[in-house]
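Retro notes - structure team

What went well: the batch runner handled both jobs without manual restarts.
What didn't: labels got mixed up in the shared folder, which is why I'm recording both outputs here explicitly, each with its sequence directly above its tokens.

Job 1
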Amino acid sequence: MKGVLFFIAVILMSTGMACKKDTSDDVQEPEPILLAQVFDYKLYFHDISDLIQGYENERDSIQQVRTLTEHWVRDRLILVEAEKKFPKEANLGKLIEDYRQSLLRHYFEQKTIEENLDTVITEEDLLAYYEANKDLHRLPSGILRGYYFKIRRPDGRNNTFPKLWKSFPEKNFDEVMAYVDEHAITNWSDSSAWREMKMVIQLFPEGTLSPRSIRSNQGVYKEDREYIYALYPLEVYQENEVAPLGRIREHAARFILHQRELELLENIKKEIYDRDMQDERVKIYNE
């Protein structure tokens, strides 16, 4: 192997000089360099030469040759072992042909979808799906979206937050947000995110909050010796209620697109059938 690698190094070093030399019809093609052999499989240098272009020095190129050769040997050993275990009675040619046909069908379907599928999903499409499939989207546990803040209790009379909170969010919204930006340990100011109700309950002191006590547009305020806990749910859905459309929007869009794909492919296949059954080269002999 060292001799082979030395020869390869010479080739790699001389490659850059080849363009400076005149070529003639008398130059003979060099013998192919055999790098490895695994039973009847052989790996030649020209099989991997394209993969080692771009290295700045021959040392890196030779290391890459070693690595590629090692990988090739490992792969071929697995292939030889697989050939030993492959059942003799299996029709390899038929398996290959079945796989080829499967690839062709897959390519045809993907190309058809890429070129013809309507991917625009309107709000009306989503609402139609939602109304038709409500029972499929009942919640296994409660969810909510809204605001939640955990704030360290201030000392003395500096605790202005309870007064601001009493009329939040209809009033004092900007004041509350400014306060929690400065003081909150936990700040859920993004009210669009849906949260699991069980997880929200765990954010409060143990035993102070239950799922049924959480209602839409009714604030929750709790304190202990160290912290203030404030929750304002904008929307609340209890266990076994139908999930809101906003919660399942992405699922609904995927479902609609999938149904369109199936319908598109079915229509295309019918068009091809109706068209080509008129061709005299298509015959059915068992009718």
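Job 2
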Amino acid sequence: MEDGRARGGGVRVAMIAGVFLAMLWVAAAAVAQVSERAEPVTGPGVTTIGGISTTARINVRSGPSVVFPVVGTLGYGTRVTKGICIGGGSARWCEVKTLDGKVSGFVAGRFLVEGSAPTPDDDLAGGPDYWAVRGLAANERLGVRMEPKSGAGVLATLKNGEIVTNLGCRMTGATRWCRIRSTTGMDVTGWVAARYLRESAPPPAVMPPGSGDGGSGPGVYVVRGLAAGDFLNVRTRPSTQGDIIARLSSGTRVRNLGCEQSGQTRWCRIRTTGDVTVTGWVNGRYLREG
């Protein structure tokens, strides 16, 4: 009986040990699963703790050296705000602070993973002042879109050779888009596919007849290039800040009293030719020789 009890007790001990080991294995597996983490999130202006295992932590010290006391620790992937850095190479130390402000101090620079700075495409910077439309088929037109994507609404179309003002470019997916403003015809600002743009010189200045250059007197213009249903504002002075005193429809004939350049806009002083005469300033891009 004693031998039998001893054998039964041994079996129970073995079973308990097996269950315990199984529980340890499951717990270890769960810990391993929880410890799996993605790479540090990076991007413009983002700094995270990296270069260590996903379960490790680095020391944050009160000064830029291992001789300074530890004031906290940071784990893999922790986002921080980076301050000044001292030294170089393996001796580089940087001041950091967690986003919640609870931990601040110095860490070895090799543990900081920094997002790349924005490119000129991201912030719409750089590039030439003007583009010329190139590469379209004979009867093809380039759509000027409301947004930098192929499915966006078309505001206007451009043909080969037209010159536009460059307002900056950016990448959307695999396509490079440029924001432009037309320099002839109706005034349109929108996005076009950059593959149809080439660097260009400024458009030639359009000098309406009798524009103060010693010509043979005032010329007659016809209002052209307005969008359907649009009107050309006649203002009290050569500026968009001038008061609107009249509106002219497409096809209206006016007399030229001289033009002048203000920034990138050419303004012309005109007088209407109807029964009621109005004298004021209009945007010269919408005038054609009559």
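One thing worth noting from job 2: Residues 1-7, 19-39, 117-123, 207-217 have pLDDT under 50 and may be disordered.
We'll revisit the folder naming next retro.
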